[in-house]
Write a structure and sequence with these properties.
The protein is mostly beta strands. The protein folds into four domains: about 100 residues, Sandwich (Immunoglobulin-like); about 100 residues, Immunoglobulins (Immunoglobulin-like); about 90 residues, Immunoglobulins (Immunoglobulin-like, Sandwich); about 90 residues, no CATH class. Helices cover about 5% and strands about 45% of the residues. It has two helices and 32 strands. The strands form eight sheets. Strands 11, 14, 17, 19, 20, 22, 25 and 26 form an eight-stranded mixed beta sheet that branches. A hairpin with a 6-residue loop joins strand 19 and strand 20.
């Protein structure tokens, strides 16, 4: 036991401690032990606008000293102890006011951002500081962002610019409305992509397929992300898609002629026949238009109860401020023919043996009568080749037509004629 005590004394004696600490160990009431100090680090705070934030300052041995909160940038005192000094109604304090002191700022704004200090009014003063980072959602800067663009096809390059403000600095990306792909060029090679990053976007030598709405989307991980819709207009003269150039119809029917025109601005479409303009208000005609895409328009001319007097060459012409285009469709009258097949039974007879100078015997094949081979194919009896063998010899006869039929030709036969009627 004595050896252990001696070892402890030696260990205590040779430990590297300061004199004040040693005196405090001997005398707990020594005022050196009562010096105020911080027990934790004041931490930075980041939050988006309109959120509530709190700084916490932990101290010990405060004694008769006070803890105060100061906004470092403006040197404005926010609070001392539990007493508010600032007139800002969004600032408040809490804690036990002995070891824990909290500074609250509700519904923060960008103006609240900056450095805040927790101070102990000792001499010299003790303090800690931390930063309030106010995160600001992105906001499109309209003054530095492109509006709608108007370009000429194959001649112009469309250049979009989009700028946004926010904390942290927002990132910009581009997309097309409706999920369409963006045509870009990089290192001299054109490609189609779903989105493009960066504050600017260029489309070289614009085409009609590039026309539409483009979205500038700004985000910085602080919701919500925002977007600006920019419309690209691509102007070009009318062109008419290939279609029928010739159409035949029987009388009494409705005939529809269609003309599909691509243009921007939208073309004015006119139908005519033999220099006579058709407005679609005539008794025999009607016109219907329908937009297929942002630059493609379908116009249909319907001829009601078609007759010979409606035949001729119809012209579709589309015109806008950049030019015009036309196409023609010739309509002619056809007769409506539907073939009908009949098998007609001519007569029933019993043929004699027919001999030629070579004494060859010819026998007609046996058929069964039926009305329509397409409806009753199973009733057709195939030719019996054994009965039509031309090498079969007949017995000599004294006349060309024998008065009595041969036994080999004693059966009755039907002579059938297939008559094709063309029904109108």
């Amino acid at each position: 036991m004595s050896s252990m005590i001696g070892r402890s004394i030696l260990l205590l004696f040779f430990s590297p401690i300061s004199t004040s600490t040693f005196m405090a160990m001997l005398d707990p009431e020594n005022p050196v032990d009562r010096t105020p100090r911080f027990t934790s680090v004041l931490s930075n705070v980041s939050a988006p606008t309109e959120r509530d934030v709190m700084f916490t300052c932990n101290v010990v041995n405060l004694g008769t000293f006070n803890v105060g909160w100061v906004e470092a940038d403006t040197k404005a005192i926010q609070a001392i102890g539990d007493q508010l000094i600032t007139h800002n109604p969004r600032v408040s304090v809490s804690g036990d006011m002995k070891t824990t002191f909290n500074l609250h700022i509700s519904s923060i704004s960008r103006e609240d951002a900056g450095q805040y200090m927790c101070q102990i009014n000792t001499d010299p003063m003790l303090f800690q500081s931390a930063w309030l980072h106010v995160q600001v959602p992105p906001d499109i800067d309209m003054s530095r962002t492109s509006g709608d663009l108007v370009t000429r096809e194959h001649d112009d390059t469309a250049r979009f610019t989009c700028r946004a403000q926010g904390i942290p600095t927002p990132e910009i990306r581009w997309k097309r409305e409706g999920g369409l792909r963006i045509r870009t060029r990089k290192d001299g090679t054109q490609r189609m992509v779903d989105e493009v990053e960066g504050y600017s976007l260029e489309i070289h030598r614009v085409r009609r397929e590039d026309m539409g709405a483009y979205l500038c989307i700004a985000s910085n991980d602080v919701p919500p992300a925002v977007s600006k819709r920019i419309y690209l207009h691509v102007q070009f003269p009318p062109s008419i898609l290939p279609g029928l150039s010739l159409m035949g119809s029987s009388t009494g029917r409705d005939v529809t002629l269609e003309c599909i025109v691509e243009s921007y601005p939208a073309a004015f479409i006119v139908w005519s026949i033999e220099e006579k303009i058709l407005h679609g208000e005539e008794a025999d005609y009607s016109v219907h238009e329908r937009g297929l895409t942002m630059y493609r328009l379908s116009s249909k001319l319907i001829i009601h109860n078609y007759s010979d007097r409606h035949s001729g060459t119809y012209r579709c012409q589309g015109t806008n401020s950049l030019g015009s285009a036309d196409s023609t469709i010739r309509v002619y009258t056809t007769e409506r023919r539907e073939p009908k097949y009949e098998i007609v039974l001519e007569k029933e007879f019993t043929p004699d043996i027919i001999q030629d100078n070579q004494s060859e015997q010819f026998l007609l094949p046996e058929w069964k009568s039926f009305s329509d081979p397409t409806q009753n194919p199973e009733k057709v009896k195939p030719v019996d080749k054994t009965r039509t063998n031309m090498n079969q010899r007949s017995q000599p006869s004294h006349s060309l037509f024998s008065s009595q039929p041969s036994s080999s030709a004693s059966n009755s036969f039907f002579l059938l004629f297939i008559v094709i009627h063309i029904m109108q």
